Amino acid sequence: MNTSPLKKIVCTALLAGLFPAAHAALKIGDTLPDLASFKLEGKLPATLKGKIVVVDFWASWCLPCAESFPVMDELQKKYGDRVVILAVNVDEKAVKMEKFLAKHPVSFTVVRDGSQKLVATVEPETMPTSFILDGEGKVKFLHTGFHGEETRKQYISEIDSLLK
Amino acid sequence: MKRIAMILSATIILAVTSGCVNVKPWQREHLADYTMQPDRDPLRTSQAEHIWFSREEASGGSGVGGGGCGCN
Question: Which residues of B touch A57 (CB under 8 A)?
Fold first, then answer.
């Protein structure tokens, strides 16, 4: 088949514009990248090894994130040292995160990915997205969005299963 | 002449299609802003729906779940 160069250029341009780049999101079974290498703002826990970790990506402009915070706080208080809730904020401006936290005070660890490098590596599907990791840092459960009581029950059930 | 037209067409197509971007879920702050909500003015929304109903003999079907942030 003889295809003109113009047709080839048009097809390539359309395909490049229409289809997003290959999705490389963190998924179940993967290991979370080393957080220390991403220059996150805020203090990371001394060690995550051997602990169940809930890594939650959130933003101040995301309403379901605000709904999820009391549940995350409840989980942190319920499980204490056995579970680390690590909320990674992806706001471009720190002041927005600070205002949000002043309105929604929490007891768990919050860090900010101001450069958005970690979130770009993890590529969460939506805001919020949370990953539940086992003691070896492997993703065991993944939650996209927050759906109130249904999600709360899932968190408890999944954390309990990992603690057994 | 044909060659110039081809190059020009290719340039235009590349310029236009390269404008297509996918806004990542963590970059939707501006889309989530209150001013981006099409139904932020209840009076205007009510008037628009009345006009729609009068002209089309149909109503509803104009709302969508969630906000501009595409959360949840």
Answer: 26
* Chain B interface includes A37 (CB < 8 A): no
**pLDDT, tens digit, 9 for 90 and up, residues A45-104:** 988 889 999 999 999 999 999 999 999 999 999 999 999 999 999 999 999 999 999 999
Distance CA B65, CA B46 (A): 18
Residues 6+ apart with CB under 8 A from B39: B45, B62, B63
Closest B-chain CA to A125: B25
ipTM confidence: 0.75
A11 counts as catalytic: no
- Confirm whether A65 is a catalytic residue: yes
Whether A114 contacts A125, CB under 8 Å: no
- In chain A the domains, ranked by start, together with CATH numbers, are 23-163 (3.40.30.10)
Q: Which of A30, A67, A103, A47 is nearest to B72 (CA)?
A: A67
Cβ neighbours for A77, distance < 8 A, ≥ 6 positions apart: A107
Tell me the helix, strand and coil percentages in chain A, rounded to 5.
Answer: 40, 20, 40
Catalytic residue among A52, A54, A65, A88: A65
Token look-up 């990791």 returns: A133
B45 CA: distance to closest CA in chain A (Å):
23
Q: Are the beta carbons of A14 and B17 separated by less than 8 Å?
A: yes
Biggest CA–CA distance in chain B, Å, is: 57
